[in-house]
Every structure is written in structure tokens, then in C-alpha cells.
């Protein structure tokens, strides 16, 4: 079983910010083009990540920080992602990237200040499931990497 290091996990999670910042120079055509047939655009992928970060910050991390009940729940992931894509339709590239960086930094700041006991504790969410920050962080690091690879492959294929 792999040992999870709070500081190392947070640093790995934070590394995604530099990737987001690198997209600020991406031209609008590449930003808005689907990465493959029947796939999202870079805009939709980053917006999807931003909306998930906002949700996790507000419904889990800040709740744990302030000793409140974790209010995440079993969501229909497809519906949640569709709403994220709808949301980003109303935003420009700069807004989406800035919001993504903002929420990611908020999460990092709050996790850094969180005592190890809270970071490694198990909580019960609104659906009655276990939730642990360290598990969430590990899953979302993999999720970020998956989308980063998709975007990089797309950008390399059109350059």
C-alpha cells in the first residue's frame, strides 16, 4: 500500500496551476476546438475541472476546515459535467483560466493549513459515503493528469 504524504500530495495537486497558466497563450481556435471527434474542447475540459474544484472546496474542504458536515453527495457525474459545460459557455478564456487558478489556490491554501488529523480523517458525506481529503486529492491528481495528457496530445497533433 502506498504511503500518502500530505505535503507531497498538495504540491503535486498544485503543479496543475502552471499547466493552466500555460494555456493563457493558447489561441481561441485551439481553445474552443474539440480535442477529438465527440470530445470536449480545451475550454470545456478546463471549465469542468474548475467547477469540480469549486464544488469540492465549498462542499467538503471548507466544511471540514470549519468543523461542519461534509455536504458533497453522490451526484450524477454526467449531469454535473453537462452543467459545467453550460456554465463555461457564458465565460471567456481569461475568466475560466483565472477562476480555475483561483479555486485551485483556495483549495491548496486551505489544505496546507488543515491539521494532518483532519487531512487523514474519514468523514460521512450527504449520501452516507465515506469521504477523506487524502483520497479525493489522489483521485483528482490522476484526473488532472488524464486531462493534461489529453490536451497536450491534442495540441501536439495540431502544431
Q: What is the secondary structure topology, with strand pairs?
A:
Layout: H1 6-14, H2 16-22, H3 28-32, H4 42-65, H5 77-89, H6 93-113, H7 116-120, E1 123-124, E2 130-131, H8 133-158
Antiparallel strand pairs: 1-2
Structure description:
This is DinB family protein. The protein is an all-alpha fold. It has a single domain, classed as Up-down Bundle (Four Helix Bundle (Hemerythrin (Met), subunit A)), CATH 1.20.120.450. Helices cover 69% and strands 3% of the residues. A two-stranded antiparallel ribbon has the order 1-2. β1 and β2 form a beta hairpin. α1 packs antiparallel against α6, α1 packs parallel to α8 and α4 crosses α5. The chain is globular.
The best one-word shape is: globular
Q: Which structural class best describes the helix and strand composition? A: mainly alpha
Number of helices: 8
Number of domains: 1
CATH architecture: Up-down Bundle
Organism: Neobacillus citreus
Protein name: DinB family protein
Index terms:
3% strand; Four Helix Bundle (Hemerythrin (Met), subunit A); globular; two-stranded antiparallel sheet; 159 residues; 69% helix; 2 strands; mainly alpha; 8 helices
